[in-house]
Design a protein that fits this description.
The protein has 231 residues and is an alpha/beta fold. It is built from nine helices and eight strands. The radius of gyration is 18 Å and the shape is globular.
């Protein structure tokens, strides 16, 4: 398969379905440039990184965003549940806030991911050694598969733990957004990941505790990670 054709189809689909998408390296440069310009005294060493990304089979390259962030920021804290949706709650945020260096900065990067195949199909990928495409973003796909059931899920922020509880929490939040996802002009896969981001944004904003931050500064960066095939 022609490398240029693979890259062209995937990148064209990325920009068509996710306008404004930029490369991870460009995003890293933007993060560092913006924080340096707007936060007096900012240094990566005085910053605590918070991550809320999904469990991703595709993050295996030094160019992946998680790797680039870890490379620049020495300390990190994991907020993630499924699909990049933060399920740590206010208790988790307070634990995070207590680890921020004195007079330092907290940077939280969050959101779901989606992969685009070499044919430009959103929500599928080709695993190494396999010949058939697989569905990506398991939490969103799994939630969609069970969306028409009547099984209730726990309230976001509840004390329930474990994979099953996390799936139910995602399900509870996505259920009321299903119609919007299916009506997305670019298809259900695009609509679903955008609604997953909406859930992630809602829960992230809900767990912020300004009192726990004290004098520390907080930067939130949310979005959808779009993974394309490696050349």
């Amino acid at each position: 398969e022609d490398v240029n054709a693979v890259c062209h189809a995937a990148l064209t689909a990325a920009h068509r379905n996710f306008p404004g998408a930029i490369l991870n390296q460009q995003l890293m440069s933007m993060i560092l440039r913006t924080m340096s310009a707007r936060l007096p005294g900012f240094t990566p060493q005085s910053t605590l990184l918070g991550l809320s990304f999904g469990r991703d089979k595709m993050q295996n390259s030094t160019a992946d965003l998680t790797h680039l962030l870890d490379e620049h920021f020495e300390r990190s804290f994991n907020f993630a549940g499924l699909g990049g949706i933060p399920l740590a709650g206010k208790t988790g945020f307070k634990a995070f806030a207590h680890q921020i260096p004195q007079n330092g900065t907290a940077l939280i990067v969050y959101g779901p991911h989606v992969t685009i195949s070499s044919d430009g199909d959103v929500g599928t990928y080709l695993c190494g050694g396999q010949d058939l495409l697989s569905m990506d973003c398991d939490a969103c796909i799994g939630a969609l598969a069970h969306m028409d059931t009547d099984e209730p899920g726990p309230e976001p922020g509840s004390e329930e733990v474990g994979m099953e509880a996390q799936v139910k929490c995602v399900l509870t939040e996505l259920r009321e957004r299903l119609g919007t996802a299916r009506a997305h002009p670019n298809g259900t896969a695009v609509g679903l990941v955008m609604e997953c981001f909406g859930v992630a944004q809602k829960l992230m904003q809900g767990l912020i505790d300004l009192d726990a931050l004290g004098s520390s500064k907080l930067v939130l960066l949310g979005g959808v990670q779009v993974h394309t095939p490696h050349p």
